[in-house]
Specification:
Blueprint: H1 2-9, H2 12-30, H3 33-69, H4 74-89, E1 99-100, H5 102-115, H6 123-132, H7 134-153, H8 157-160, E2 172-173, H9 184-215
Antiparallel strand pairs: 1-2
């Protein structure tokens, strides 16, 4: 029985397994931690650059939308808004935040208040009063603006008109970027995550192989 145990311990198969495990451990040790960390640092810097470029592209398109809004051209504003939305949905790190289409809102509110103007009220007076009540438009919308105008000109006709409520919320755009996108930034993020996984997996594998060599083969 002892002879069989000794034979099994020194068998070619056991020697082969020992050489294989030592060879694998040697290969893993040849890959230095600092080399992997340098590569990871370089990739992380490239990732940050691509993410920043994504954000810059969004900022430029957002500025273009705000600029076009000042023209009051609804068709052009819609085109610019769709262009911005398409870019944001395909790129990481491009949240727009709330972008106010101020000119379109002003025009819509002005059209609503003009539609409610009483015919017997002097045009010049009405124009001056509507300008004086603009703060109420920003704080309470077109209905509050109309009420302010009615109070100042001393008539209830404006209030009795069916003033269209122009909500400021309808004149904002707010686009959110995806958590992950298949652009350069997204690919770099994926590579960085993969490299981090490789580093962690390598460390775990080295520890496991050392334990196997120490326990199974009684080596150091």
């Amino acid at each position: 029985m002892r002879g069989w145990q000794q034979l099994s311990k020194n068998s070619p198969w056991r020697t082969h397994d020992l050489r294989r495990d030592r060879r694998l451990l040697k290969i893993l040790r040849e890959i230095k931690d600092w080399q992997l960390l340098v590569i990871l640092l370089i990739l992380a810097m490239l990732t940050a650059i691509f993410l920043r470029l994504n954000n810059i592209g969004m900022v430029e398109l957002r500025a273009e939308l705000i600029k076009i809004d000042k023209t009051g051209n609804i068709a052009q504003v819609k085109t610019a808004a769709v262009k911005l939305q398409n870019y944001v949905t395909k790129h990481m790190n491009t949240d727009t935040g709330r972008v106010a289409l101020q000119t379109l809102y002003n025009n819509a509110a002005q059209a609503a208040i003009n539609a409610a103007r009483p015919k017997d009220v002097d045009t010049t007076l009405y124009q001056r009063v509507t300008e004086e009540c603009i703060p109420q438009r920003y704080s309470g919308g077109t209905r509050a603006w109309a009420q302010c105008v009615a109070n100042r000109i001393g008539t209830t006709l404006v209030e009795e008109q069916n003033v269209e409520a122009v909500s400021p919320d309808a004149y904002y755009v707010d686009f959110a970027s995806p958590v992950f996108s298949f652009d350069l930034a997204g690919i770099m993020v994926l590579i960085c995550c993969l490299l981090v996984f490789i580093v962690i997996f390598r460390l775990i594998l080295v520890v496991i192989l050392r334990i196997i060599l120490k326990i199974k083969y009684h080596t150091h």
